[in-house]
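Technical note accompanying the year-one report. For the benefit of new consortium partners, we illustrate the data format agreed upon in the data management plan: each record pairs a sequence with a structure-token string. No post-processing was applied to the example shown here.
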Amino acid sequence: MCSYITERVRISGSAKGPAGWMKVDTATVYYDHPYHAPLDHSLNVDFVDETAGAPTRVALELSAESARELVRTILAALERGEEAHGGEHVPHEAADAPRRRREDAAV
């Protein structure tokens, strides 16, 4: 039976798909039958750029335990990273600025 349990959240970041790197601004999270993973049900996450539409999405299909472990690992990495940087939160664009400047200088 399909559950149709779906959550959406606005995000700010990038993802790499078949055509290369792309902006992502929305994540859709749902628990349902997977398309590809050999599971009866999975936690599915679609990362998309709403302006580009679904064909540019990057999708994940995870077992429930894998999804829980991923959440724990993300939270641990955030906590350790913020501690290492003095508790400061660096916005995505500001964090990329030094790398972009180095890339621009190399051109």
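Partners are asked to follow this layout when depositing records. Residues 79 and 85 are 10 Å apart (CA to CA).
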